[in-house]
User: Which sequence fits this backbone?
């Protein structure tokens, strides 16, 4: 009897154990069948646009719009005086909240803007009755004062710093507690409700460009005062999209913007560049814009999940990651399997330059030009482009990228043409034949996988001629600190244009811009400075372009940087996405873009 | 407990206020001027003396107001609250499932100690533990989610109805990760008990094996098991930062990882202090439970 | 753990001179363990696997095995072949060579970090257990505090402050993992310091140092051994995760963690070389260590003498 009981107990015990196993298997089967296998029906009236973000949005306050991803969202919620034309290339400005392009005085120091009438801020509890009020010229002055107010530590002050009459004095007064925020500024005046006058201290030909940047958009005083520090989570703008409630922003996951029913409206552009018509980008020419019900930004920091989500139809476009490139593109065309799914390929060239910088303050690197030349000649840029960019880049010959005045497609920089023998020659000339006697250098880079891999490649190139380089990986803030403090001996970075004027690149070598300014290599050359200052005073034109070219030649000769490449961005779009043309200068394109919901319902389940 | 709290704050303070370099430059942006850097330094409170800064830090902890994140300017307390929900949903189910499953399996294995099954269980567990968690994540995400399409690749739905489908694969991975250690630990605990004299006595008295196991061994083994469970609870909070970041789950672990990547000291300090406090709290809880269950132990 | 063994031996050796006691005593515990291990086939196989890894690592570091690990030996992402059993990685380097050198990195981290932890743990544990009082209170406060901060936060924060690099990984891991050992050693010292054999030694004129080093410590040594093994495995796993996150060794040192970081992106090509090589190499080493350590611990446990 006892034996029987124990046997039974043994079996029961075994069952208990396996019960646990069975339960968990059953549970997961239930869940998985509920979630995956059955295809979800796609709503054929849904106009939602889903956009990927590669990094997290930090905050939605325009005065802190220092990072690309926050700016991407901000520029669809807020608007400024000017914006970039959606389709035209080279990039051109057009009025947004301004009625027309500004009238400029003869001496180039006074800009007069007329504001559009009837532009309303989003409805928000910050306003009485919750109804958004009309935008006036004063609002722009208020918004720009926030940038200058030292208590805000805005990263955007540079767009006006030293350029507007009375602005710096006003900021100093606030800092010294001798002035108030409400004090008037001579260079920013509202002549009447809809007229704004800007007076400059010196000619500033980039002014109109900076007015199209996210920093310069208009914000309502009421919202800033009501929300205080939480204004970053409660944006109130004038744009076609709005954040209806702050819970629509799920931190580190996604942001859902909804259509602004009170938007001023716009019509689709009637002109573009050659090729736009054929690409179907002028189908809606002249028609009033139909804004999507929802614009959803989905934060996916890892490449693969982003790619996979696109492949499943959860995103409307995606940048093709390196590792998936060969499976997606052959001979510069989309592979048939993907084309059959309706997807399209789009290429645009990034207005940027990727480079390696020498710390010109370093006693060895800064003084030994031949050594710098050896570094540069040893670098196999074409192989680098092939390996890490799938061939999607152009070797850079100088600091100015294609598409800007001053770029010469026929110019060849002799020091970036890969030549190992010549590199060894120059190394010997520098006094270190075969690297003998050369100390080990340290190359600062970012800790992410791609940066690390590219740096490993570069180090291999230099090791091949005898230069030993150690790699030091950093987080972004650490990286910046080292650079700003002049502690980075060699480092690799990219500079993307803030606006389409080569001055934005050439300023990186101006001696007055050394750390903590953007002149990270610490390059100082009085001859260069003279040319730079002269160019600042000239309007865009032949004379200025000549100066730009001269400056480029000096930089090529002195080599504070090893110019690497300009990237080409390859993007895939879904077959149901219309009017999508990526704009490298601005992110407020989603008012033009629309989804064909019937097409989506048809194509998505087949992916 | 208080002196330990003091110690923790001291360590984090030393690490992040003293040993690290001046963070003011990073806030000034691309186009900083020396002036603005100074202003920022003052805003951040970095121009105050070290003891002053330390006192301020203590005040923050006591009032649970950690200020704002340097990277996002969001209120840190809000960030932590937001992250809790996701992390707990991610960690609690596999945690509980693993305890139940492991305990059952461990009991069974130790019951058959020395048998092929027992040895097999030990080896399999050791094998599971010999593979890095990274490998599980990379492999399973690629195969199960991407290639076979059984689960969504990543993502999150904040609604209570929608979040579960994004959690299944992470649950599976966490469960597998926890299994290895849990089974082995429980097995050794149970075995320790199995060889005690009282067991031999019980068997000699004729108590059936089954009764021996449930009534005597399990009850006594519960003490160290509960201790282990309670000590493991901080894991519920730190989540698994790798899984969170890979699957896009907006929890505390992912937040910590991001803070490290962005040198976001206020967030790192806040999280370290909170988690350490939770840890100490759970340890205390374990001691209390321990003393309740075993009247021989008295709290010192 | 060895309480019973101690009890048995104490009584019989009370009358002998302290030095003789210790030698004999150490021998019989260790000899027992050794005999038991010899009989355990699993333990033997694991031991030789570990030795094989160590030899492989030393040869790699000396430049005899795979000296060209940093060089590009072919195209990138070549498929598995006889010449390159795991293919080549994104830089064209042989993945097998990287895995072998990665083993050297892992072993060095395991060894050095654990040694640091061993030294700190035993020293502080001995001091706390032996002297008691304020010293004890201070050390207990120190390790409870460190213990309250989860490793997952402490180690990356430390490497953050110290910077990247192999040496800093050693320090970071070593400085945070001595707590368990310290606790155990402290408990043992507290038990032993009032034991008869120690009192006998004192009666014979032994000072503090002698008592600690020549008498008590050898009886506690086996705990150190086992903890060393556990610490070794943790250290390796930590290094892998730290390197993956980019806060571990600098990229010029091959590491399994960096190989896994590379693998993350490559799986979609598909290229499985880095993932497979790193996983396999780590698997066998860690498994061997775990099995051996397990066997060691059991063999040193006198309760199981009659198994």
Assistant:
């Amino acid at each position: 009897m006892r034996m029987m009981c124990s046997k039974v107990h043994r079996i029961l015990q075994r069952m208990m154990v396996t019960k646990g196993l069975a339960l968990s298997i059953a549970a997961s089967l239930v869940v998985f069948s509920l979630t995956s296998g059955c295809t979800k029906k796609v709503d054929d009236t849904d106009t939602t646009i889903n956009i990927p973000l590669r990094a997290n949005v930090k905050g939605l306050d325009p005065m802190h719009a220092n990072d690309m991803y926050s700016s991407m969202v901000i520029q669809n919620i807020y608007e400024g005086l000017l914006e970039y034309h959606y389709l035209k290339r080279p990039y051109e400005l057009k009025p947004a909240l301004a009625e027309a392009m500004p009238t400029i005085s003869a001496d180039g120091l006074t800009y007069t803007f007329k504001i559009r009438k009837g532009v309303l801020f989003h409805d928000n509890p910050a306003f009485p009755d919750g109804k958004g009020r009309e935008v006036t010229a004063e609002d722009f002055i208020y918004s720009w004062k926030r940038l200058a107010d030292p208590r805000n530590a805005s990263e955007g002050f540079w767009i006006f710093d030293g350029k507007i009459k009375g602005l710096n004095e006003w900021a100093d007064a606030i800092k010294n507690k001798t002035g108030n925020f409400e004090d008037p500024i001579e260079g920013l005046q509202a002549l009447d409700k809809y007229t704004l006058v800007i007076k400059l201290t010196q000619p500033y030909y980039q002014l109109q460009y900076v007015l199209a940047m996210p920093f310069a958009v208009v914000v309502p005083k009421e919202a800033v005062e009501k929300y205080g520090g939480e204004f970053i989570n409660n944006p109130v703008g004038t744009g076609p999209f709005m954040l209806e409630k702050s819970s629509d922003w799920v931190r580190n996951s996604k942001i859902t913007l909804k259509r602004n029913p009170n938007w001023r409206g716009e019509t689709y552009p009637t002109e573009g560049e050659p090729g736009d018509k054929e690409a179907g980008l002028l189908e809606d020419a002249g028609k009033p814009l139909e804004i999507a019900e929802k614009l959803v930004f989905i934060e996916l920091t890892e490449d693969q999940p982003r790619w996979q989500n696109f492949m499943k139809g959860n995103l409307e476009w995606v940048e093709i990651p390196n590792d998936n490139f060969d499976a997606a593109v052959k001979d510069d065309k989309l592979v048939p399997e993907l084309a059959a799914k309706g997807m399209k390929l789009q290429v645009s060239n990034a207005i940027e330059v990727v480079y390696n910088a020498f710390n010109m303050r370093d006693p060895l690197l800064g003084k030994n030009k031949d050594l710098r030349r050896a570094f540069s000649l040893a670098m196999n840029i074409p192989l680098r482009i092939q390996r890490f960019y799938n061939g999607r880049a152009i070797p850079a010959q100088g600091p100015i990228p294609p598409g800007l005045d001053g770029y010469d497609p026929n110019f060849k920089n002799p020091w970036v043409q890969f030549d190992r023998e010549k590199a060894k020659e120059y190394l010997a000339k520098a006094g270190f034949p075969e690297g003998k006697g050369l100390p080990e250098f340290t190359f600062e880079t970012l800790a992410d996988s791609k940066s690390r891999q590219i740096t490993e490649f570069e180090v291999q190139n230099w090791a091949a001629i005898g230069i030993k380089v150690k790699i030091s990986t950093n987080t972004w803030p650490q990286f910046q600190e080292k650079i700003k403090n002049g502690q980075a001996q060699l480092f690799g970075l990219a500079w993307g244009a803030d606006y389409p004027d080569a001055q934005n690149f050439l300023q990186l070598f101006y001696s007055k811009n050394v750390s903590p300014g953007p002149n990270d290599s610490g390059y100082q050359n009085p001859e260069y400075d003279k040319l730079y200052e002269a160019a600042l005073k000239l309007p865009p034109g032949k004379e200025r372009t000549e100066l730009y070219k001269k400056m480029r030649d000096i930089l090529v000769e002195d080599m504070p940087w090893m110019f690497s490449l300009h990237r080409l961005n390859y993007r895939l779009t879904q077959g149901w996405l219309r009017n999508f043309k990526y704009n490298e200068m601005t992110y407020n394109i989603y008012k033009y873009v629309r989804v064909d919901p019937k097409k989506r319902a048809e194509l998505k389940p087949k992916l | 407990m208080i002196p330990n709290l003091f110690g923790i704050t001291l360590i984090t303070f030393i690490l992040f206020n003293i040993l690290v370099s001046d963070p003011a430059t990073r806030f000034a942006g691309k186009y900083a001027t020396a002036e603005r850097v100074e202003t920022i330094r003052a805003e951040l409170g970095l121009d105050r003396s070290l003891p002053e800064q330390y006192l301020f830090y203590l005040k923050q902890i006591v009032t649970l107001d950690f200020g704002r994140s340097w990277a996002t300017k969001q209120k840190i307390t809000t960030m932590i609250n937001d992250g809790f929900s996701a992390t707990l949903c991610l960690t609690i189910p596999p945690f509980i499932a693993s305890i139940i499953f492991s305990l059952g399996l461990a009991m069974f294995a130790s019951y058959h100690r020395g048998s092929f099954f027992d040895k097999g269980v030990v080896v399999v567990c050791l094998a599971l533990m010999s593979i890095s968690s990274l490998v599980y994540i990379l492999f399973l995400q690629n195969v199960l989610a991407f290639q076979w399409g059984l689960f969504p690749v990543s993502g999150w739905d904040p609604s209570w109805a929608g979040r579960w489908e994004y959690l299944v694969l992470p649950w599976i991975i966490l469960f597998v990760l926890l299994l290895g250690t849990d089974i082995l630990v429980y097995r050794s605990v149970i075995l320790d008990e199995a060889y005690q004299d009282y067991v031999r006595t019980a068997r000699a008295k004729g108590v059936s094996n089954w009764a021996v196991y449930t009534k005597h061994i399990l009850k006594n083994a519960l003490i160290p098991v509960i201790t282990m469970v309670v000590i493991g609870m901080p894991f519920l909070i730190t989540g698994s930062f790798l899984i969170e970041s890979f699957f896009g789950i907006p929890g505390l672990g992912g937040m910590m990882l991001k803070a490290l990547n962005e040198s976001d000291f206020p967030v790192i300090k806040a999280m370290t202090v909170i988690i350490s406090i939770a840890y100490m709290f759970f340890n205390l809880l374990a001691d209390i439970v321990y003393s309740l269950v075993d009247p021989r132990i008295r709290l010192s | 753990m060895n309480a019973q063994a101690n009890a048995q031996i104490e009584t019989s050796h009370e009358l002998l001179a302290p030095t003789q006691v210790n030698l004999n005593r150490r021998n019989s515990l260790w000899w027992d363990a050794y005999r038991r291990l010899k009989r355990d086939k699993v333990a033997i196989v694991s031991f030789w696997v570990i030795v094989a890894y160590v030899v492989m690592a030393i040869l790699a570091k000396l430049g005899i095995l795979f000296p060209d690990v940093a060089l590009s030996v072919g195209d990138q992402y070549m498929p598995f072949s006889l010449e390159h059993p795991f293919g080549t990685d994104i830089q064209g380097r042989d993945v097998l060579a990287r895995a072998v050198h990665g083993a050297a990195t892992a072993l060095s981290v395991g060894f050095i970090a654990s040694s640091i932890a061993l030294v700190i743990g035993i020293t502080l544990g001995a001091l706390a257990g032996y002297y008691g009082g304020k010293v004890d209170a201070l050390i207990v406060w120190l390790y409870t505090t460190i213990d309250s901060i989860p490793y997952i936060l402490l180690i990356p924060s430390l490497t953050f402050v110290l910077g990247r690099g192999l040496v800093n990984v050693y320090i970071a891991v070593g400085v945070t993992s001595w707590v368990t050992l310290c606790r155990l050693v402290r408990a043992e010292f507290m038990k032993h310091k009032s034991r008869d054999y120690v009192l006998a030694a004192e009666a014979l004129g032994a000072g503090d140092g002698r008592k600690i080093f020549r008498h008590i410590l050898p009886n506690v040594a086996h705990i150190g051994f086992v903890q060393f093994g556990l610490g070794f495995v943790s250290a390796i796993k930590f290094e892998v995760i730290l390197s993956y996150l980019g806060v571990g060794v600098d990229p010029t040192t091959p590491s399994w963690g960096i190989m896994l970081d590379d693998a993350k992106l490559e799986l979609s090509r598909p290229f499985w070389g880095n993932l497979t090589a790193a996983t396999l190499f780590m698997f066998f080493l860690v498994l061997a260590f775990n099995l051996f350590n397990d066997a060691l611990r059991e063999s040193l446990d006198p309760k199981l003498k009659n198994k």
